[in-house]
Amino acid sequence: VKQTNAEDNGSRSLDRAAARARISRRVLFAAGGVTLVAGCTPLAAQSVGVVGAAGSASGATVPTQRSAPGRTTAPGGASSSRRASTPPATPPGIGPPVDPATVRTVPEYYVHAGAKTIALTLDDGPTSQYTPQILEILAQYGVRATFCMIGRQVGAAAGIVREVAAAGHAITNHTWDHADQTKLPYGAIVSQIERTNDALAAVGVRPQIYRAPYGNWSPPVFRACAAFNLRPLDWSVDPRDWSRPGVQSIVSNILRHTRTGSIILDHDGGGDRSQTVAAMRIWLPQLLADGYRFTSV
Ligand SMILES: [Zn+2]
Fold first, then answer.
1. DSSP one-letter code for 183
2. Active site residue 123
3. What integer is the mean pLDDT of 121-145?
């Protein structure tokens, strides 16, 4: 039971081969002797059959949560497990109360702000080396973006966080330490959100959005988002800049896949992001010249 899926981070080297094979967002669920394979394809409202242990179709269908039209590449790199089993009920007393009606089952993959309107997200900062370089480029072109910050990095880069906020960019909660939240119990997911919110609050930022590390979502993660009134945010264009595929690769990937509503994933942390920065100096003015405008998510 494996999911090849990573946007970034230190464990990205674990499954490079699979990432190269672009086993995009493939999810294999296994529960109670039932195996369900759901690949992320550009088909909206895609359904996949459930095949029983004996190999016969049960007739039941389950809509995949990965039905983002136009989703291009998968975050690749690390492996993680995901189970389709029902999560345990929230233990009493853990985290804020949750109105079940507000719990999402899918994250947001697109912005809906008009023709040729798109969004740019920068994950895994703040970092003293790359966040300021990105800010400079964005300021040069008058573009507002969304920075998905790792909580434990906020304190040491408080001044940079304030600069990001002062420039009008959105800041989201990207967990405390970038662990795969689908492997954590609900209480730990809550704690990761809370610590990050607290770190950001200390510099005057109150995030309204949550981005899951590796784009790994689970019912408890969605529930925790609801508990803290955070919108779950994913992406739809992934140039895999974290894998340092080359500046031209990042540029061409973004230019090839971006369309109205796209949310582009880029990184200002998690390693050497010099290719990300160099690529942005090329693709950003190109998209603007093509008539695109950027909105915060
Ligand atoms: Zn990340």
1. G
2. yes
3. 98
Q: How many CB atoms lie within 10 A of CB 194?
A: 18
Phi, psi dihedrals of residue 263, rounded to the nearest 5°: -110, 115
Q: How far is the CA of 198 from the centre of ligand 1 (A)?
A: 19
Q: In sequence order, what are the beta bridge partners of 120?
A: 264
**Containing H/E element for 131?**
helix 131-141
Query: pTM value?
Result: 0.73
Nearest 5°: CA angle at 157, between 155 and 161? Answer: 100
- Rounded distance, CA 3 to CA 265, Å? 19
pLDDT tens figures, 9-20: 444 443 444 444
Residue 19's pLDDT is 43
Tell which wins on pLDDT, 130 or 94. 130
The active-site residue, picked from 15, 123, 234, 241, is 123
Could you tell me the distance, in angstroms and rounded to a whole number, from the CA of residue 42 to the centre of ligand 1?
23
Catalytic annotation present for 267: yes
What are the two backbone dihedrals, phi and then psi, of residue 84, each rounded to the nearest 5 degrees? -90, 0
User: Which tokens go with 70?
Assistant: 């136009």
CA angle in degrees (0–180, nearest 5) for 127-144-11 = 35
Strand 47-51 to strand 231-233: parallel, antiparallel, or no bridges (unpaired)? Answer: unpaired
User: What's the CA-to-centroid distance between 187 and ligand 1, angstroms?
Assistant: 21
126 and 269 Cβ atoms separated by less than 8 Å: yes
CB 220 within 8 A of CB 203: no
Residues whose CB is less than 8 angstroms from the CB of residue 39 and which lie 6 or more positions away in sequence, other chains included: 24, 25, 26, 27, 64, 66
Are 239 and 266 in contact by the 8 Å Cβ rule? The answer is yes
The token duo for 148 is: 């998905």
How far apart are the CA of 98 and the centre of ligand 1, in A?
26
Q: Which two tokens stand for residue 7?
A: 């946007």
Out of 169, 174, 178, 267, the active site residue is 267
In whole angstroms, what is the distance from residue 264 CA to residue 281 CA? 15
